[in-house]
Specification:
Organism: Seriola dumerili
Subcellular location: Apical cell membrane
Oligomer: single chain
Mean pLDDT: 83
CATH class of the domain at 858-1055: Mainly Beta
Family: Belongs to the Crumbs protein family.
Radius of gyration: 58 Å
Shape: extended
Protein name: Protein crumbs homolog 1-like
Number of strands: 108
Main location: membrane
Largest sheet: 13 strands, antiparallel
């Protein structure tokens, strides 16, 4: 264990050294240093008192005060009483240390030890000197009376009773069978409760009893069980047996009688069924399953009583006593009267109807009364004509039969673009009616309904009185308000109707519409809007089962409705309370009950009160303030009064500008000043004294402009300790304060533009004195710096703005200034430097680009030919093109110009040539070839770093006539050897099993391109360097391939004009697929050349009909009773069937029925009644014929032919002979295939086989596959 806190020791020894804290010394730092040894106290306070790591100077004993001029008493014998010890305290005087049991300045007060209530359990405490004594109540003992005396120690309870100790006494819990509370536990008499039943004799035991049941007729522990006389089941017919004492009784079900219920009562004996009805007993088991009333019921004795009557037709009731009223179901339709008959009825039809049930409406339209193309609508004993819309420049038709031209609108007098509707008066005269647009009224729409308020005011009117009624009694002419308005202000009252206690109000609150009703309880609905958009909005407020707010206008063109939750059963509207109406506002005592509290400013029109239109010329006669007729509005924001420095808000009578920072003023014409910090890389700052408390939650905001990504922006300090630091870190605003929840955006702000920064601080607390590196000084401009609502400034601000003025500023320039960034002439190649605020821009000549004009633009001089695309490189240019090859190969040489290792080869190809060489080169020991074999890619390479030749093919064909991007790369180009991967269009299609090195030998060897190849090539790159397909001037770049020879290809990639011959038939479209074509056939045709017409009937689309093939379509001729495109929809069954003798056919679900006239019965002849269809077929009844639907395997009109039997009748020889011939031919083909395979195997020995030869490590001969020239073949 260490001998001190800060200890150092010498390993391997017991030596140690303690480094003592200030004020202590000694081996273990336990000795206090006496700072008074050096007599540090001089002057009047010369008495030195030693402290821990310090001392204090005091006046001599007996003196005190600031200058030790006061006399201070010292200790005497009488100072401390009751044995207290007196001590002289410097500068203060005597102080007593009291003996135990006393306290006070002079120890004069005896301490009351009983005050802490040490005695427990109600004991009495007596105080002494530094002591106390407890006097216990009975039952307790001990110095604090905390010990309970055990009264059970003497075992007072008898008969094995358990003693329970309690306070100052005990209690006995007796053993089972005994009772008592003190010493005696007396035996309990269990027979006292008479537990034995039915006069059984009780015998008392200890904690139990026995019952003697002898002679009682009962058995059991309590003589409770009767001896069962019903055990022999004496009661018959399901009767219930009731036990008695030595006897029983049978309770019979209704319908049975006798002592044992053995007699079945015959209910039909008295002939209860009247009017010839037949009686059946319910107790007869044979009737169950026979009578329809008992079909679903099982026989039970409980339901066996009674009888069932089967009545003759025309009678009903339990005993057939009731004559059936066939008119009771009201069978007669359309108001026909029904006359009841015996087992029948007859309908007497009203005018316009006929039929058995008056169900047939006599069609008055059958006479075609409507003229001029009008449609006729049949009505009850009448008709109605719907006139057609008029032709252009024609008047509409009118009149009862649409036979009169309506010319009433030809010279109409409707004004203000009102619509006109022509009509005929009751006496047949031509007339018209005007449809007024919003804002106009009157017979000719010449009365304006528009009025406005350009200042807060209102109209006051007294409405007429109506009788009291509840809300449920109100009709359409009840409490209702409707108007149209437009305004741009968000908060105002449109109207207030009623008193302070009961009212209806409509107001705008933050642009939303809110309706209130107060009448006993308060109802409230809100339409969120906004509706203060300066456009017309129609709004109505009405009371239904709910308070309803209806709005129509922009955003709600079809109308929107808002209702309050719940129902208004308890609302009682007293119209006398709603006589006062204020429009456009209200007096202040009423506005105080609204949310907005302001009057309306804007325009209104079409004001309806209780469905009555109120005109402005009438309103102006009422008490009004600020009412103006008509509506005039100036677009205050049209001319941009805010100077593009803020958002203009149209306040209806003026414009209001919400200025963007740092602008202010009525038109945002003024700007808060800015300051430049770090100009020309100087160190600058400003300091402010914050004289007011902003609490723990505050915000800091400012505009900044900078290009320096790091630097201190602002730091808040308290008593010299910084507790919040805002700084730039990698171009974003960062905040440091360990105990603060901060909100900020990690947005890039050092982009040279003005950026508004806002920091919201919650619960900011000062932290310790810590100043880290904040990325150096801030360099840039600050503007409009605010701490909450106060501005931090170094200049004079308007008097209305609260500011903190800078107390210190150093190297801060007024305004926002840029460094002279062009003084070092940073632009190259003759570029002109322009200062762009703390940065510069180089205006380069046409041949250079880049930030410093350091990049040469070669393509500006058009070094490539027409039709070839020039692409600039860092040190040169490339001329890119596509070209088509037809066995015209090209030769290239890099001349050791490639700077990077060759680990990748890419090219774009388009061909239908199945075999050919795309790229080939050979060195002394190296070889590379990329070609086509059977439409797949073939790769062979040997980098010379090993004796193994890598060869592999792609698992995907590329000779399909479309462009493909081919890429051959080393899997790990950083290694000296690696596997190679082949990809086509970004997907892996092959790779080597073994490893090989890079292809750096291509840097100084000849490369052949497109040997024995027909097709197009695009960009071809070796090691990322382009192989030019056409001759171009010598490029300036370091790495480049030069053309050594070859035939010039044709620029572009265009195959033979294969579609010029128009091979596709029947208007098919020919699609050029690069030396191949496809035909896109028109509707109704198919085939390679669109030569075959599609038979749309082949799929059997007609369900109940015959299919007729058409061009690109089909037509179904449906059977009677069916319709639809595929004859799948069933028509009215009555179209197929007819009822004779004046019977009416009635359509039913899936069938029909005939309603016969009086005196006729029956139905149409069922053609399927004789079951003519055979072999399980389904018969469909048709008019005068039937139709058989056969099951699978049968055919014929009656499904009489078995399809399988026809098949089985085929002679066996007709099957055997063709099968034998086919087997012989197959055997010949198999033998021929085996012979050809053997010959081919011998001929292919030594040719390319990647799977076998690569594994074996053999070198492959290219000549047999790709027809390589003799001088280039590999041995």
């Amino acid at each position: 264990m260490a001998p001190c806190t800060n200890c150092t020791s010498k390993p391997g020894t017991d030596e140690f050294t303690c480094h003592c804290p200030s004020g202590f010394t000694g081996l273990n730092c336990t000795q206090d240093v006496d700072e008074c040894q050096s007599n540090p106290c001089n002057g009047t306070k010369s008495l030195c008192v030693n402290r821990i790591n310090r001392y204090s100077c005091h006046c001599p004993i007996g003196s005190g005060g600031d200058n030790c001029q006061d006399n201070v008493t010292t200790c005497s014998e009488d100072t401390c009483q009751n044995g207290g010890t007196c001590m002289d305290i410097p500068d203060t005087g005597p102080q007593c240390q009291c003996a135990a049991g006393y306290q006070g300045p002079n120890c004069e007060e005896n301490i009351d030890e009983c005050e802490s209530e040490p005695c427990q359990n109600g004991a009495i405490c007596k105080d002494g000197v530094n002591a106390y004594q407890c006097f216990c109540v009975p039952g307790f003992q001990g110095s604090h009376c905390d010990l309970d005396i055990n009264e059970c120690a003497s075992r007072p309870c008898q008969n094995n009773g358990t003693c329970v100790d309690e306070v100052d006494h005990y209690r006995c819990d007796c053993a089972p069978g005994f009772k008592g509370e003190t010493v005696e536990c007396v035996n309990i008499d269990e027979c006292a409760s008479a537990p034995c039943l039915n006069e059984g004799r009780c015998i008392d035991r200890v904690n139990s009893y026995d019952c003697d049941c002898e002679g009682t007729g009962f058995v059991g522990d309590h003589c409770e069980e009767d001896i069962p006389e019903c055990a022999s089941d004496p009661c018959k017919h399901g009767a219930t047996c009731l036990e008695g004492i030595n006897q029983y009784k049978c309770l019979c079900w209704p319908g049975y009688e006798g002592d044992n219920c053995e007699v079945d009562v015959d209910e039909c004996e008295r002939l209860p069924c009247e009017n010839g009805g037949k009686c059946f007993e319910r107790s007869d088991v044979l009737n169950y399953g026979t009578l329809h009333e008992l079909n679903t019921a099982n026989f039970t004795y409980e339901g066996a009583a009674g009888f069932i009557c089967h009545c003759l037709p025309g009678f009903t009731g339990d005993n057939c006593s009731v004559n059936v009223d066939e008119c009771e179901v009201a069978p007669c339709q359309h108001g026909g009267s029904c006359q009841d008959l015996i087992n029948s009825y007859q309908c007497v039809c009203p005018s316009g109807f006929t039929g058995v049930h008056c169900e047939v409406d006599i069609n008055e339209c059958d006479s075609h009364p409507c003229q001029n193309g009008a449609s006729c609508e049949d009505a009850a004993n009448a008709y109605r004509c719907h006139c057609p819309p008029p032709e252009p420049d024609q008047e509409p038709w009118g009149g009862r039969d649409c036979d009169v031209r309506l010319v009433g609108c030809q010279q109409h007098q409707c004004q203000h673009e009102a619509g006109c509707v022509p009509m005929l008066t009751d006496d047949g005269e031509q007339s018209y009616a005007c449809l007024c647009p919003p804002g106009w009224s009157g017979e000719r729409c010449n009365t304006s309904t528009t009025f406005s308020f350009n200042s807060e005011g209102y109209i006051h009117m007294q409405l007429p009185v109506s009788k009291n009624r509840t809300r449920r009694e109100a009709d359409d002419h009840g409490l209702h308000m409707q108007l149209r308005f437009k305004s741009t202000l968000p908060d105002m009252v449109l109207y207030y109707r009623g008193t302070v206690e009961q009212f209806v109000s409509l107001e705008l609150v933050s642009g939303s519409l809110q309706a209130w009703v107060k009448a006993g309880k308060v109802l409230h609905v809100v339409y969120p809007g906004p509706v203060n958009d300066g456009e017309w909005h129609q709004v109505s407020v009405t009371m239904d089962e709910r308070l309803v707010l209806s709005i129509k206008g922009p955003g709600c063109e079809e109308g929107c409705r808002v209702k309050n939750e719940g129902h208004n059963h308890l609302i009682f509207l007293q119209p006398s309370s709603f006589q006062q109406l204020y429009v456009g506002g209200a007096p202040q005592e009423y506005l105080a009950h609204t949310t907005s509290g302001r009057g309306f400013v804007g325009c209104m029109e079409d004001l309806y009160v209780d469905h009555k239109l109120l005109l402005p010329q009438d309103l102006i006669r009422e008490e009004n303030h600020g009412l103006e007729l008509g509506c005039t509005k100036t677009d205050w924001c049209q001319e941009d009064p805010c100077l593009q420095r803020g958002q203009c808000v149209d306040m209806w009578v003026r414009a209001s500008c919400q200025c963007q920072r740092p602008f202010y003023g009525e038109s945002c014409e003024r700007e808060y000043p800015s300051w430049t910090f770090g100009h020309e890389n100087t160190s600058s700052y400003s300091a402010y004294n914050i004289l007011e408390s902003h609490g723990n939650n505050f915000s800091i905001s400012f505009l900044m402009r900078s290009l320096k990504h790091n630097g201190l922006l602002l730091q808040l300090s308290r008593d010299g300790d910084p507790y919040l630091t805002i700084y730039l870190k990698e171009g974003t605003v960062a905040i440091y304060s360990p105990h603060t929840t901060l909100l900020s955006e990690a947005t890039f702000v050092t982009d040279g533009n003005n950026n508004l920064v806002t920091v919201k601080v919650h619960n900011a607390l000062p932290v310790g004195n810590s100043m880290n590196a904040w990325g150096g000084n801030f360099k840039g401009c600050l503007q409009d710096v605010r701490l909450d609502h106060k501005h931090l400034t170094m200049e004079d601000y308007p008097e209305t703005v609260e500011v903190y003025q800078a107390s210190t500023e150093e190297n801060v320039l007024p305004g926002c200034h840029s460094d002279d960034t062009c003084k070092d002439e940073p632009c190259f190649n003759g570029g002109q430097c322009q200062v762009t605020w703390n940065d510069f821009k180089c205006d380069c000549s046409i041949n250079y680009s880049g930030r410093l004009c350091e990049t040469r633009l070669w393509c500006v001089d058009n070094p490539c030919f027409d039709g070839v695309r020039c692409v600039d490189l860092q040190d040169g240019y490339e001329c890119l093109t596509e070209a088509i090859f037809q066995d015209n190969s090209l030769q290239y040489f890099a001349n050791s110009s490639l700077l990077s290792p060759v680990t990748r080869i890419t090219m774009d190809i388009r061909t239908r040539d199945e075999n050919g060489i795309l790229l080939r080169a050979a060195g002394r020991a190296e070889v590379f070839c990329l070609g086509l074999l059977n439409s797949s890619l073939l790769v062979k390479l040997d980098s010379g770093v090993s004796s193994e030749l890598l060869a592999f093919t792609s698992d995907r064909t590329v000779a399909d006539g479309v462009w493909h991007h081919v890429q051959l790369t080393m899997v790990d180009p950083a290694q000296s050897v690696s596997r190679w991967r082949l990809t086509v269009d970004g997907q892996r299609v092959g790779g080597s099993f073994g490893v090989g090195g890079n292809l750096n030998f291509l840097n100084d060897t000849k490369i052949w391109l497109a040997e024995k190849y027909t097709g197009c090539l695009g960009e071809v790159r070796v090691g990322g360097v382009y192989l030019p397909l056409i001759r171009v001037p010598e490029a300036p770049q370091v790495s480049w391939f030069s053309r050594l020879g070859g035939h010039e290809p044709i620029i572009g990639c265009q195959g033979a004009p294969i579609c010029d011959s128009q091979p596709c038939l029947n208007q098919g479209e020919c699609l050029d697929q690069f030396y191949e074509f496809n035909c896109s056939c028109s509707s109704g045709w198919e085939g390679e050349l669109c030569e075959t017409e599609i038979n749309e009937c082949s799929s059997g689309p007609c369900v109940y009909g015959t299919c007729k093939d058409l061009l690109a379509d089909y037509q179904c001729d449906c059977e009677p009773g069916y319709t639809g495109k595929d004859c799948q929809e069933e028509l009215d069954n009555c179209l197929e069937f007819s009822c004779v003798n004046g019977g009416s056919c009635v359509e039913m679900v899936g069938t029909h029925t005939c309603l016969c006239p009086p005196g006729y019965v029956g139905k149409q002849i069922d053609e399927c009644e004789s079951s003519p269809c055979l072999n399980g077929a389904t018969c469909l009844d048709r008019l005068n014929h039937f139709l058989c639907v056969c099951v699978p395997g049968f055919s014929g009109a009656l499904c009489e032919s078995n399809v399988k039997e026809h098949k089985e009748r085929v002679p066996w020889l007709a099957v055997t002979i063709p099968l034998t011939t086919l087997c012989v031919l197959l055997a010949i083909l198999v033998v021929f295939f085996l012979i050809m395979t053997a010959r081919k195997k011998r001929q292919s020995e030594g040719t390319y086989s990647p799977s076998s030869q690569e594994v074996a490590g053999a070198r492959l001969e290219m000549g047999s596959v790709l027809k390589v020239p003799p001088e280039e073949r590999l041995i």
